[in-house]
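Morning, I've got a small favour to ask if you have a moment. The fold is given in discrete form, as structure tokens running alongside the sequence. I'd be grateful if you could look everything over and explain what you see. No rush at all, and the record is pasted right below.
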Amino acid sequence: MSPEEKRVLQAAISMSFSGPLPPPEALAHYEQILPGAADRIIKMAEDQNAHRRHLETTVIESNAAVQKWGLVGGFVIAMTAIGGGIYLIAHGMSGSGLAAILTPLVALVGVFIYGKSEQKKELREKSEALAVIEPSAAAASPATADTSKRS
């Protein structure tokens, strides 16, 4: 064997992608191997996307319902306590009645302030997370190819 024949050229190609669909070249390759595979892959991605959107809608709607019923429940409890306090004041127990009125009002104000601070904290954490993700997402490309040669 001559030295040229002994020389072996090796190339390694690695490809990665992110997202629901492979790059067009990979889809074409799948289609060559199994006709109809590209359509099936695209349909699978569309179905998954529709499923994800449905789940997100369900979660958002249920969260809104829970919040609404929480407000209604809080209002009923507060009005019951305030009504009881007014009843106590009307029947000569002004100290107990005043305490019965002020206690739910203070509790409602406390819950409101706590809820607002938690909302601000959550929004701040999400904006910080997005600030971290955006620069790294811009640096990464959807498909990369590495080629290395050894002799």
